[in-house]
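Chain A, query sequence.
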Amino acid sequence: MPRLALLLLAAAATAAQAAPQPFTGIDYSGRYECQGQDDHEGPYTGTVTLALVREQSSGRHGAYRFELEVPGYGRYPGQAASDGAQMAIHFALTDQATKDYGTGIARFSRTRDGRWQFSKWYYEPEFKGGNFGTETCTQLK
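Chain A, predicted structure.
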């Protein structure tokens, strides 16, 4: 087979593999009430909103808009990517001078009454010399 034909076949195979699949994963969209424990700031409460970005989601992998609102601190918009019951989350306080931004990992499960909940551990490399914390969030009805 001529070299050009082989290259075209390889390109077609690569394009076929990269074709997006319809989203078949779990949609975790909704509002969640959260209880957190920050290593520097102590206990806090907040509300998380997750919104699936269907056109960027593929197969079991979900793409999300993320926002955490914490009274007294502000809004932390970001993005998240799910793989089954796990989700990676990036967030950043809108006041960038504080360097209050980070990355978290969450694991989803169902409550006894069928709502989604997640437990998240996060790391903030620059906030007050480095920081970490946890959140437990339960979907509002």
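The beta strands are 30-38, 42-52, 61-70, 74-83, 86-92, 101-110, 116-124, 131-139. Residues 74 and 103 are 17 Å apart (CA to CA).
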